[in-house]
Amino acid sequence: MLVEVRPTKKLRGSRALNLTACLSPIVDALCEDSLDLSRLRLVCDWVQYKNNFRDVIDVRPILSPAKRNGRSAEPDGEKLEIAVDLRRCVDSDLAQVVRDVLAGRIEPDGLERVYLEAWSEGTTSRIWEFNSLYWRFLGVWEKATGRLYEQALPGGESDARNIAGVHELIREMFTVWDDLASHNALPDELYVIELGVGNGNQAKTWLDEFAKLDAEHGSEYYRRLHYMMCDYSEHVLALARKNVAEHAAHVSSFALDATTPMTALGFLRYKVFLVYISNVYDNLPTEDVAQIGGHTYRAEVRAYVPKADAARVAEEFGIAPDKLVGAIDKLLSLGPESLVDALSSYFPDVARAAAFWMQVWDAVKLEERYVPMTGLDLYEIAPGVNGEMLRPMLERHGDVRMQVSNGAIASFVDTLPLLHPYGRLQCHDIFVTDPHQYRTGFLGPGKYDGSIVNWVNGPLLQHIGRRKGFDVGYAPFAHRAGTNIVTLTAQVRD
Known about the structure:
Elements: E1 2-5, H1 19-32, E2 40-45, E3 57-63, E4 75-85, H2 94-104, E5 113-115, H3 127-136, H4 138-145, H5 163-182, E6 190-195, H6 201-217, H7 221-224, E7 225-231, H8 234-243, E8 251-255, H9 262-265, E9 272-278, E10 288-292, E11 295-306, H10 307-316, H11 324-334, H12 336-342, H13 350-363, E12 365-372, E13 380-382, E14 385-386, H14 391-395, E15 400-403, H15 406-415, E16 419-429, E17 431-432, E18 446-448, E19 451-453, E20 456-457, H16 458-467, E21 470-476, E22 486-492
Parallel strand pairs: 1-2, 2-4, 6-7, 6-9, 7-8, 9-16, 17-20
Antiparallel strand pairs: 3-4, 5-11, 10-11, 10-15, 11-12, 13-14, 16-22, 18-19, 21-22
């Protein structure tokens, strides 16, 4: 039996985790079963997100490469991964939980689970429909919770609004523009794009400070500025437009999918001096891959609601248990406002529909299994990006599991052609910057308010950027202590 304990920092210090107290009842219960312990992996995480998709203990079948047959692969006997959340161990009867989980593995369709989908790749799971729902109907969610989404961020605001950081970025851009202007090489129109504009607070901060610094600089760059606000949500774009109304002559807005910015912005190819992104990449669809025992696997998932939670929600909203999944389907396809019209007997108003949405989201979990990959060369990370890009990370670090960050890579690759030869992409987000981080901590997915958060595979982004002729660097966010935010900067290689 292989035992892997990832949160090593939790094992030391005055508040160190009592690892023995957590592992002993688990191992005892495993030894009671008829499992071949030599074919068992026990993986321990500290799931720091209080709202997440994990149970205290989960079982993940590891399907045999020898039995891989399309999508009908079968578990290889007793080859399993037992996943443990050490943060919640203290409050659980671990031995009994393990017994229940192992007994449940005999029923492949999980009699205690109400499934929302069949097995799927991580990027196509229905959890991303919930994520999309959150941004499409953010106003409904905010009204139901009584707080704006930005208040859910650490510190209650985005690091993108940090004045010192904004000043530093603008002054660096002025230096580039001054140099180009001195050589009569500066275009008449100066384009800046913000992907994921949110409610416009960051855009307002940036534009206010730009106008002020430009007045001091005396260059009249503000007169030539075109600021493009881009977001998936029409709701937040409407808020953003109100927020920057005093700069309206310099601002345009675009509703677009962050993974394909060229679709709407292709007319700006090679013209943009700054693409600014904050807390977007961590919210884009991703799947996980793993290297286990010399074989490469994809983590397939299927979303479910525990049967007890499903019964509770169905009873509260007067829905027959066998109609619950249908009601969830309608919520995801129609949204909470139209759900009132479609199922008025259950949801007489939008507030009631929003309450249903929030309770279902809180209850949704993910079941996982590892499916062998037929070859990295046959795997597409994102359009035009081959799975071979993963090989250096997967083959140099032993048994490891990591996010592919498919959506972030698609966005990154599709954004680079927009950049002027002297332009830059700057992104503030939660990046993995060393593959070793995947061996020492839990990096998602977690639930962040009504959306999803995953750490972003920085080394993979960096590798892909270099292959495309860009220098990609990472630095800790310099203007707030104690933050996990890292700043990515990408520029054409000299």
